[in-house]
Design goal:
There is one protein chain. It is built from 10 helices and 9 strands. The chain is of the alpha+beta class. The radius of gyration is 20 Å and the shape is elongated.
Amino acid sequence: MPMNTSSGAVKSERRFGTEAQLQRCFERHACPSLWAGSHLPHYVTARESTCSDGRADWVWGGSRRALAGEGSSALSPFLQQPTLSRILALLKPVASRRAEFLQGLVGVDGATFRKAVNQLLAADLMEELAPKSYVLGSAFQVPALEISAFEFKLGDWKRAFYQAKRYRCFAHRVYVVMPIETAHRVEAWQDTFRRFNVGLIAHSPEGSSEVILPARRTEPSSRARYLRAIGMLLS
């Protein structure tokens, strides 16, 4: 059985023919402890995420708790809707937010905003404490997912790097995954990856992985896009 290692992956004589082959092999063999440690035993994954301006090839969301029973099927459609997720991202559990403040930051017209508010109120995801003054509702119970996003490339590391940077808006960690030979040639650019906190993983056709540069865990830069990613992962 192929082994996943944090260093010293054996150079392979085989080659990946396509990026899809690289991705499928990585998904099948790579151990989540490579990028997230062993503290998140429960996880869900999704392909072709549109939670950022770029399309992430693969998204992984890990949790300390089992995800069953979280009410995900009911909550997921609300989180994935851009206007609703932006409103939810601005709300607090106790401190109320005025309708004018919310609408201005969400950036939609009055009719669209009122329709969104009515949807959230009906689903108990939003509560009106005073006229046109809102807090998060009792049904807003989002599982604490730690998200990692991956971009797979056979050779064009610069394109992979710039795409992966975009995923920091919704992910705690982002990685570029490349074949071993290519990834080691990219080592000379480690300072660029490190400066923007983009990790680099080498993967072989035999299924072994090597973390050349780990990505530090940071909070996603956009809470709304993070909520959309959770909705996608739980759908």
